[in-house]
Amino acid sequence: MDNIICPFCNEDEFDLIGLKNHFVKGYCSAFNETISVEQERHLTSRSSRQEKSCAHHWVDATNEVIKGGQYCTKCHAISPAA
Ligand SMILES: [Zn+2]
Ligand SMILES: [Zn+2]
Questions:
Q1: Distance, CA 36 to ligand 2 centroid (Å)?
Q2: 44 CA distance to ligand 2 centroid (A)?
Q3: CA-to-CA separations, 77 to 8, 33, 61, 62, 69, in angstroms, rounded
Q4: What's the pLDDT score for residue 43?
Q5: Which of these, 8, 44, 66, 77, has the minimum number of CB atoms within 10 Å of its CB?
Q6: pTM greater than 0.90
C-alpha cells in the first residue's frame, strides 16, 4: 500500500497519483503558499525598489537622538531638519 506523506502540509495516505493531483490541482495550501527562490528574489528586489520611491510620510521626530528632524513612517528614513 502506498502511504506517502505530503512534505508540505504533512497530510498522509497519498499514492503517487493522489500526491501529484494534490499539488497540480491546487489542493495543498501549504504548497500553494510556498514560493520559489526566483519569486522570492523578485519580491525582494521589488520591495527595495519601492523603498527608494517612497512617497515619504514625514512626522516630526525631534527627540534626544535626532536633535530636530523628520522621520518617515513608511520607509523609516530620517531627514535632518530643513
Ligand atoms: Zn499537501
Ligand atoms: Zn519614506
A1: 29
A2: 17
A3: 38, 31, 11, 14, 11
A4: 74
A5: 44
A6: no
